[in-house]
Amino acid sequence: MNEKVVITEIILVKPIRPINFITTKWLVYIMIALFSLFIGLLLNWYYSSLLFNAFPFHIFLIVFLFYSVWYIFIVTLVIFYNTFVKTPGLVVASTIATLFIMAGINMAIGHRFTWFPNQLTNHINTFTQTEEISSAFIGTTVIISIVSLLLLFVSVLLFNRK
Prior knowledge:
- By secondary structure, the chain is mainly α.
- It has 6 helices and no strands.
- The protein has one domain.
- Helix 2 (18-51) packs antiparallel against helix 6 (135-161) and helix 3 (57-84) crosses helix 4 (88-109).
- It is globular, with a radius of gyration of 18 Å.
- It starts with a helix and ends with a helix.
């Protein structure tokens, strides 16, 4: 028997509400992802500062915060697919396929929709050069946050039906 299924069955025998189960799992994965992102960006910032001009640390923190929104979106997407797909490989494939489709849409019509989620890296790049946060940058961040919250809400609903 699959070890993950056994652990889930043991946990769900206890009176745990589905929203607590999903949001706790989501929060733990986000903490791991954001810690990894922070360490990676910090080492990149340090190495780049040694090789080139020193990059202001407050810009680094702002870039980390905005990239965190993207990482939270990806973790939420994984949790969403994990609520109704049992095979881990299929969860990964679904997540990658979704991100691939979003990248295709961004390549095709992203220049018209500056608030499209995949535009975030372009906005971050512009921000690092100009140090100005545009309205499109904020709009993209708000859209990603709303979609993440909706996916989390739907994940709880889908998990509750199981």
